[in-house]
Amino acid sequence: MVLEKMEMFLDNLQPMDLMRSEKMSFVQLIIPAESAHRAISYLGELGLLQFRDLNADKSPFQRTFVNQVKRCGEMSRKLRFFKDQINKAGLLSSAHPVIEPDVELEELEIQLGEHEHELIEMNSNSEKLQQSYNELLEFKMVLQKAVGFLVSSNSHAVAEETELNENVYSNDDYGETTSFLEKELRSVPSNQSGLRFISGIIPRSKVLRFERMLFRATRGNMLFNQAPADEEIMDPVSTEMVEKTVFVVFFSGEQARTKILKICEAFGANCYPVPEDITKQRQITREVLSRLSELEATLDAGIRHRNKALASIGYQLTKWMNMVKREKAVYDTLNMLNFDVTKKCLVGEGWCPSFAKAQIQETLQRATFDSNSQVGIIFHVMDALESPPTYFRTNRFTNAFQEIVDAYGVARYEEANPAVYTVVTFPFLFAVMFGDWGHGICLLMGALILIARESKLSSQKLGSFMEMLFGGRYVLLLMALFSIYCGLIYNEFFSVPFHIFGGSAYKCRDTTCSDAHIAGLMKYRDPYPFGVDPSWRGSRSELPFLNSLKMKMSILLGVAQMNLGIILSYFNARFFGNSLDIRYQFVPQIIFLNCLFGYLSLLIIIKWCSGSQADLYHVMIYMFLSPTDDLGENQLFWGQRPLQILLLLLALIAVPWMLLPKPFILKKLHTERFQGRTYGILGTSEMDLDMEPGSARSHHDDFNFSEVFVHQMIHSIEFVLGAVSNTASYLRLWALSLAHSELSTVFYEKVLLLAWGYDNIIIRLVGLAVFAFATAFILLMMETLSAFLHALRLHWVEFQNKFYHGDGYKFKPFSFASTTEDD
């Protein structure tokens, strides 16, 4: 009677939005070809329909709209090219494009082709002009630097009329600038026996290797002079500024000349002719300078024209990129659809939330009207054999907690969602390990800054770490608030206790015990109203007291959370109508856990309330070793020994209760089904063995009893051993809390107070800086990360393995919004 009333009460409860995933419907769309593109576009704007790929057996090149996808890919390449050019030019593409009339995809394709051709041509001309400018600039610097070398070696020169004939030209396309020099060379007779020289310019990074190679090639029969160039020269390809060095090599002989030329070519050195005659030098220098000024003007005009063209593209670049992305997404989705027999309609299938069916139908009707189609789009719900996707409607606050759960595994369709409880339990367990209200205030300030700048930061491109931090800003907020709460309970502000809620309950026995420990204190009034009494700090009993408190509290929290997980497994089994899991899984599990560790939690509470000195270790150990022995001074209440015997028997009974009945009942139901005696059971979930978690069966007719029994045995052993190991795992709450507290104390006493003990402002400032650094980077960063990961482990392993399967798959609707975010 009581169970029936409880079930009626539970049935009448309103379902929570986040407790179970949205109900999904499997739908089919039959779309006329003329309205297919518009219909898919409208559905992308709506973002509530996930299409199935009906052409999964075909390669991308065998699909219907492969040419349109290729065209979109080519346009994307051109747009990326424009974006790279705009970034190289140092221009900014407009985030808010100028509003202009929409263009069709074909028109945009033509425009992009014209812009690309124009830009490529401008880049080519600019590179040629820059190359010529670089050559003239290098020639000018060679003329300026080489004069000194030639003047100093003038006494070693042979006849003046032979000098220009020996100069070397490595740039055949020099143009009009070298015309005067060539005329001079042709008019002077050759002398093959005198001292010669080669002048040129080379990147500074290659000078040492270049000189060493020349020395080895000529066997030391050369003189190498060098001087750094006054200006850096821009590489026309990489647009980087390169430092160069001017060199002059003096040598003798045609063989040496040939070797030096080859080495210059190999090292990328540019050689230029330098006459020894001062008149000719001045004439060539004037000619070079005039050409440089002309090229500078031409280059500036070309850059201005190119930047103007890039700026006009930049105004519409964002709009064009979004348009091409959308079109490509539409055609990729159309490739997932099939043509019907008449080749006039496209057939698509997919999943949508049940609440969105009306919106989708309205959207399809609008697409039919806007495309002037004479035939409407057919939309109807179908039965599906596969499991539906999982979809939770989250907001900015709950999304981060849902992501924490999904990182472990996406929930099975309509199973209980741990994120509902994670919203509270995750930051609370973090705070139990991180409890310090001073550190909590620091975290709170960081979280509030992120939340206050939410609108600004959400539109910016953040780094990986900042993006993760910003995404979990509300998790950080709750972690900070719970840390402040737990810090007030622990009475720790950067490890320092405060009398916030009144005076201490203890005082000195006499006037001489101001520095005495707890032995010299006496309790003279009611306990401290909230949290730990400040007088415990610094006493001899501080560590044993806090260790005992935090260890017992960790066990209580762990047993409570594991019980919550088992209770959620009951609600899962009840929701799916699986009475076998309730009778032979939930009941023995709740009995086993609470007969052992639930009883331990009860003893802890009774000991706290009664002030007893009983040894709980002794009680729990001898509950197994000698359950009938007298408890003596460890007895906490009347009837404890027979209760312990009863609980021990129930725990022992619960193990075979979990292991044996369920496989044999499943075998019996399977046998009866094929004997035709209990057709009425076929509709129940007990016979739907595919719904059994981890079942070895994929069909009803290939039931394997040994596999089912082994699976149940593994599940039972895992729970029994896990009940012990998981309870012990919650002791990490105590360990990390103690470590955080002790680290804070060390930094406060051994750094800050020690430095403050010196009457020197510099030592005090250094101590304060070290304390601030240790607090920020060790306690606020490393300890936060450590406590976060341990809280994550407690939820994924100790809590969720009691009820959560996590073998579902996410609902990923076709949506332009998600397409833009992903790119």
UniProtKB/TrEMBL annotation:
Pfam families assigned to the protein according to its UniProt record, in alphabetical order: V_ATPase_I
Q: Where mainly found?
A: membrane
Q: Which InterPro entries match?
A: V-ATPase_116kDa_su (IPR002490), V-type_ATPase_116kDa_su_euka (IPR026028)
Q: Where in the cell is it found?
A: Membrane
Q: Give the UniProt keywords, A-Z.
A: Coiled coil, Hydrogen ion transport, Ion transport, Membrane, Transmembrane, Transmembrane helix, Transport
Membrane topology classification: Multi-pass membrane protein
- Record's superkingdom? Eukaryota
Q: Which GO terms describe its cellular component?
A: vacuolar proton-transporting V-type ATPase, V0 domain
Which Gene Ontology BP annotations are present?
A: vacuolar acidification
Coiled coil residues, start to end: 105-132
Q: Which residues cross the membrane?
A: 428-451, 472-490, 553-573, 585-606, 643-660, 761-782
Molecular functions (GO terms): ATPase binding; proton-transporting ATPase activity, rotational mechanism
PANTHER family per record: V-TYPE PROTON ATPASE SUBUNIT A1, VACUOLAR PROTON ATPASES
The record's similarity note reads: Belongs to the V-ATPase 116 kDa subunit family.
Q: What does this protein do?
A: Essential component of the vacuolar proton pump (V-ATPase), a multimeric enzyme that catalyzes the translocation of protons across the membranes. Required for assembly and activity of the V-ATPase.
The entry's protein name is V-type proton ATPase subunit a
